[in-house]
Design a protein that fits this description.
Radius of gyration: 24 Å
Structural class: mainly alpha
Length: 263
């Protein structure tokens, strides 16, 4: 038997909520620890560092990235392992969060949010792929074209890795926009009308985000980030409208049931 919000809150006291939350956090931290160990194995076994260095190799003129401290290779590997571990553990962490808040949600809210979680994973991978194969080479080509006749590159691997990981994670996070909007629309915090009204501001924000994340010429900015951002925004409006239509159908069905009971 599924509980609604009122029934769930009556059956589970506040201290039991805290105890459940504590165990959800413990399981999430345990998953993060095990995923980090798995990430360390993956980083060393499959040369993840080499894959991340691949976009800059055409600009190195046959040389390798440099490091300044004897401990740098180990800590770079460790940082990569932690990053991979977080990504691997994220589905488990999201599940623990979902399992904690799901009993307080209505049936139609669960029906909308669950597909959004799977969609979020796909969108993150798409954003990361665009960053890796498009935005990072574009940014490197643009940035390293300045003062090339007067300066000699001596790129440090730690600085480069920070740059690459930030761009990949930033693109992945930006592509989660439809998921965020879908969840907010399901909870009644955002409407499609509000999103349509804010479209002009969204264009400005998308242009600024594209300029910050992928510095380069206007055409490249439009191709690699601004156009996908606006497509995602329009997709978010469509998702919000779908949620509103479903809510209207459920409300109409409830009113019909009430009318039938009253006759």
């Amino acid at each position: 038997m599924k509980l609604n919000r009122a029934e769930h809150s009556e059956e589970m006291p506040f201290l039991d909520h805290l105890e459940e939350l504590r165990w959800r956090i413990i399981w999430s931290l345990a998953a993060l620890l095990l995923s980090t160990l798995a990430g360390f194995w993956l980083v060393t076994r499959f040369d993840v560092l080499g894959l991340l260095i691949l976009p800059i190799q055409p600009f190195l003129n046959g040389t390798k990235l440099k490091y300044l401290n004897p401990t740098d290779p180990f800590f770079i590997t460790l940082n990569l392992a932690i990053t991979v571990g977080i990504l691997l553990a994220l589905p488990i962490i999201v599940y623990q969060l979902w399992a904690f808040i799901a009993p307080a949600l209505k049936k139609e809210e669960k029906r909308s949010i669950v597909p959004a979680l799977y969609m979020g994973l796909v969108l993150f991978l798409i954003g990361a792929a665009i960053a890796y194969w498009g935005a990072i080479p574009l940014t490197l080509r643009f940035m390293m074209s300045f003062q090339s006749s007067s300066l000699e590159q001596n790129i440090i691997v730690s600085e480069y890795m920070g740059f690459v990981v930030k761009i990949i994670l930033a693109f992945g996070a930006v592509f989660e926009l439809p998921v965020v909007v879908l969840i907010l629309a399901t909870l009644g915090l955002v409407t499609s009308g509000f999103l349509v009204k804010m479209r002009r501001y969204a264009i400005v924000v998308a242009a600024v985000a594209a300029a910050l994340l992928t510095p380069g010429d206007a055409v490249s900015l439009t191709i690699f980030l601004m156009a996908p951002l606006m497509i995602l925004y329009e997709f978010s409006i469509l998702l919000a409208k779908m949620v509103e239509r479903r809510r209207a159908r459920v409300h109409a069905a409830d009113m019909a049931d009430l009318a039938a009971e009253g006759t």
